[in-house]
Design goal:
The protein is mainly β. A hairpin with a 7-residue loop joins strand 20 and strand 21 (462-486). The protein is globular, with a radius of gyration of 29 Å.
Length: 862
């Protein structure tokens, strides 16, 4: 049997979970000899199939199947993949968005659908990252996380690769139609209004998948799926903007954080209220033809759309007079927790944000056995992605004469104006400006692959494989901005458009927001009065990247030993230019060896080892964006066409013990990343093209990073126990990391930190109990504190995400063998997001409250 068909057979076994129909799918109850078999129900069967996939793999992988995903309150694939060992996520507004594999964020990882690359709708430093919250989990049959690489896989995957596998009709002899519908409730909803000034939107979601075989011999297959969801939620958030803390000396003079009397003072206080309507649409269709065992062809398409419509209300108080990141030069009457600034100002703003992302993927592939011992595989894909992000912002501000007394006796700092009556007079809040900002990004990728396998080599147990890839990617991104200022003769103030809708809302910490900007009123004022266009700017870039890759590899298996090894060569050519700028270009070639070893110590004990080299290409934006000059601050930021790709040396060792109905496994890994890319700001004066600037910001290759990790997992269903204990099961995993990240500092030299955006520990625990009538499941996820933002010049201003733990619940009751009632609770523990900064990372940077989410629904299988 050829390697591809071995994988296809394994994939088919795993995929049967999703096609089992009933929520409590089970194995046959009796053998042909009439002996009772162990009956395995839905979640237990899902774990069993995932374990089989891991056991038979040539490399170190983790897998989860659609039946498993459907049994958690996971709307998107990023939340589903979070349950696997070695995986963390970067969250956005209470939902998982970008996966982090083994300490490396989405920029370092490869995401594919059915093995083919997916375009990214992101811009800037995330230009290669695929936001998995865009893709509904219900459209994915299973998720494969490959942690070690083989030569036939794309090596632009330092952290690993995530492959989303869609359903196949040919894996089921019978037609199937599966569907579910849910209605939801978010605790944080109902306050304020949506962006269109509408009432609260009722959350709901629904999906279906259908497929069948047809033709005289069932050689054709067609499968289709659709998913829709919408939710409306509020997020109250408080913060100290820009981690803006400082210290004063005994005379009350501002001397900077770490240089004063040790009394740490926040110099601003900011609260937000987000009202977000988030809508997802996903669809997939696949046609397949398998006329015989020697040939298979399929063509598939996926479309995913993600729309955010957000109203963002803001109120800020700043100590001092200098604008953004304001700090007072002096204070008086200071104690350990209080002090007075005689200068300061208030700002109230509104943001209207629309963010639309789309990803389209068209794929075609075929497998052909032209002769005994030969397999030819060929395929191609076209993937496009778009980002449309129009924004309208507006603000009102007092003058800087409004001093205040601050209080830091609690975790949430407070400021009280010295003249509350004048501060509360809305005519003292003058209009600042109205801005329109239209961001965009487009990514078009074309890919073709060819692979040839020969398994009739004269050497017993040896298979040889060779192949290649051609890929062309085109990325464009940019923005246009306009600023409008009201005619001073209008005397436009907050009193003209104030809206007290949030006056009764309590924030965490007890903050209040008495008057926000009325959205309709401010729009009407802008349309009917004189505003001058005082500033306009436009920026953008177009870039193209061509990758040509070839590889040779061998797979040798004898007795308990299996070895897969070879070498891959990847050549990269790129070119691009900023809007109206000069074309820049470059190329590089990487030789990337890899080897994976599996040794069966016993029938149930498997030892694995792997070594490889992988790369991480710079974002095209970092190479080609050109220069942006800030005339207000006299600073310059620019791309760097001399950037080199990251190169990582990777080593893995793991031991897997396949116990009855489960697995107990542990492993260690090490990654040494050379030429790490980071963004450096050099304080001026800095001369660029004969012009002196106050600061220069650009990406550089100047750091190295090391990641050491330990992973362990235990999964077992207890169906071998006597009733009623045979319904219990558990799945648990833990990942521990020790990371080093060397950062150059502006004054020269370096400082060492942990790797940013990666917790030192993540852990998952799922426990369930299932019978033919019902199933109960609880899942716990813990994510340790991690470094989110590095301040190269002052470690006291680094920003950290505080550790968090979340519990999700699900209960199912089988009304019939085809209909199931489902209840879900997401974030039972009411976890939000807290970011910390300052000395010892003990001070507030940001705190957001997400609340709990409840779903009630029904699923059916026909």
């Amino acid at each position: 049997m050829t390697p591809t068909f071995r994988r296809a057979a394994l994939a088919g076994a795993v995929s049967m979970i999703a096609l089992s129909g009933a929520a409590y799918a089970q194995d046959d109850a009796r053998t042909e000899d009439g002996v009772d078999n162990i009956v395995v129900y839905g979640q237990a069967l899902s774990i069993q199939r995932a374990i089989e996939a891991k056991r038979e793999s040539d490399s170190i992988i983790e897998a989860t199947a659609q039946d498993d995903i459907g049994r958690l309150p996971d709307l998107n694939t990023a939340q589903a993949v979070l349950r696997l060992p070695g995986v963390a996520v970067q969250n956005d507004q209470g939902e998982a968005r970008f996966p982090i594999l083994r300490g490396l964020n989405a920029t370092y990882n490869r995401t594919t659908i059915d093995g083919y690359i997916v375009a990214s709708p992101e811009r800037g430093g995330l230009g290669r990252a695929v936001p998995l919250d865009l893709i509904p989990a219900s459209l994915v049959e299973r998720i494969e996380v490959q942690k070690t690489i083989t030569p036939d896989r794309d090596h632009n995957a330092i952290g690993g690769s995530i492959n989303l596998v869609t359903r196949s009709a040919l894996d089921s002899d019978e037609p199937f139609l599966l569907g579910s519908a849910f209605i939801g409730h978010h605790e944080n909803s109902g306050d304020g209004t949506t962006l269109d000034e509408g009432d609260e939107v009722q959350p709901w979601r629904a999906n279906f998948a259908a497929g069948r075989r047809f033709g005289p011999d069932g050689q054709f297959g067609l499968v289709a799926g659709f998913d829709y969801s919408i939710r409306n939620f509020n997020i109250p958030q408080v913060e100290v903007d820009d981690a803006d803390y400082t210290e004063f000396d005994s005379a009350g003079n501002n001397v900077g954080l770490g240089n004063g009397n040790g009394f740490v003072v926040p110099t601003n206080n900011r609260i937000f209220f987000y009202n977000n309507v988030r809508e997802r649409i996903g669809a997939v269709v696949k046609g397949e033809w398998r006329p015989n065992s020697q040939f298979r062809f399929e063509i598939a398409g996926s479309y995913n759309e993600y729309n955010d419509s957000e109203r963002r209300d803001e109120e800020t108080y700043e100590l001092g007079t200098s604008g953004a990141s304001s700090q007072p030069a002096t204070i008086r009457n200071q104690t350990a927790t209080t002090g007075v600034s005689d200068t300061g100002y208030g700002f109230i703003g509104i943001g209207r944000f629309v963010l639309d992302r789309e990803i389209t993927s068209l794929r075609a592939s075929g497998e052909w056995i032209p002769a005994e011992g030969w397999l030819v595989e060929a395929g191609g894909a076209i993937s496009t992605a778009e980002l449309t992000n129009p924004e309208v912002t507006e603000g009102f501000q007092t003058d800087t004469s409004f001093g205040a007394r601050y209080d830091t006796s609690g975790f949430f700092p407070f400021t009280d104006p010295l003249d509350p009556a004048a501060f509360g007079d809305l005519t003292n809040w003058a209009h600042t400006n109205r801005g329109t900002l239209d961001r965009f990004a487009e990514d078009d990728i074309y890919e073709a692959t060819l692979d040839v396998t020969w398994d009739s080599v004269p050497v017993q147990g040896l298979e040889l494989k060779a192949g290649g890839l051609i890929r062309n990617a085109e990325k464009s991104e940019g923005f246009t901005f306009n600023r409008y200022v009201a005619d001073p003769a209008l005397g436009y103030t907050l009193a003209d458009v104030a809206d007290p809708a949030l006056a009764g809302v309590d924030w965490q910490g007890g903050y209040r927001f008495e008057n926000r900007i009325g959205l309709d009123a401010s729009d009407a004022y802008f349309q009917s009065n004189a505003f001058a266009l005082t500033a306009t700017s436009e920026s953008g870039s177009d870039a193209e990247e061509k990758v040509t890759a070839g590889y040779v590899m061998g797979r040798y298996e004898t007795g308990p030993l299996m070895v897969v090894g070879g070498v891959r060569v990847e050549n990269t050519e790129w070119e691009g230019a900023p809007l109206g700028g000069a074309l820049v270009s470059g190329d590089y070639t990487d030789v990337l060896p890899s080897v994976n070893v599996r040794y069966n110590l016993t029938g149930d004990l498997v030892l694995r080892g792997a070594a490889s080299q992988t790369l991480g290409r710079p974002d095209l934006n970092q190479l080609t964006r050109g220069e942006n000059i800030n005339l207000t601050d006299n600073t310059i930021s620019r791309s760097n066409p001399d950037l080199k790709p990251r190169l990582s040396s990777n080593f893995d060792v793991s031991l897997e013990w396949y116990i009855p109905q489960g697995i107990l496994a542990a492993g260690v890994f090490y990654k040494d990343v050379k030429d790490e890319i980071f963004v450096q700001t050099t304080q001026g004066p800095v001369e660029v093209d004969g012009v002196a600037y106050s600061a220069l910001t650009q990406p550089e290759n100047a750091t190295n990073a090391e990641i050491r990790g330990f992973e362990a997992q235990y999964q077992q269903t207890y169906s071998f126990l006597p009733a009623p204990f045979d319904g219990f099961g558990v799945s648990a995993n833990i990942t521990l990391l020790d990371t080093e990240f060397v950062v150059p500092v502006p004054a020269g030299g370096t400082r060492e930190t942990g790797f940013f955006q990666q917790p030192d520990m993540t852990a998952n625990l799922t426990a369930f109990y299932a019978t033919e009538a019902f199933e109960l499941r609880a899942s716990y996820n813990y994510t340790d504190t991690f470094l989110d933002t590095v301040n190269a010049g002052n470690a006291n201003l680094d920003e950290y995400w505080e550790d968090r733990y979340q519990v999700d619940l699900q209960g199912r009751f089988n009304v019939t063998d085809r209909i199931t009632l489902i209840g879900e609770v997401q974030n039972l523990t009411d976890q939000g997001r807290t970011e910390l900064t300052g000395p010892g990372a003990e001070y507030l940077q940001e705190d957001a409250d997400f609340g709990r989410t409840f779903w009630l629904g029904v699923s059916a299988a026909l």
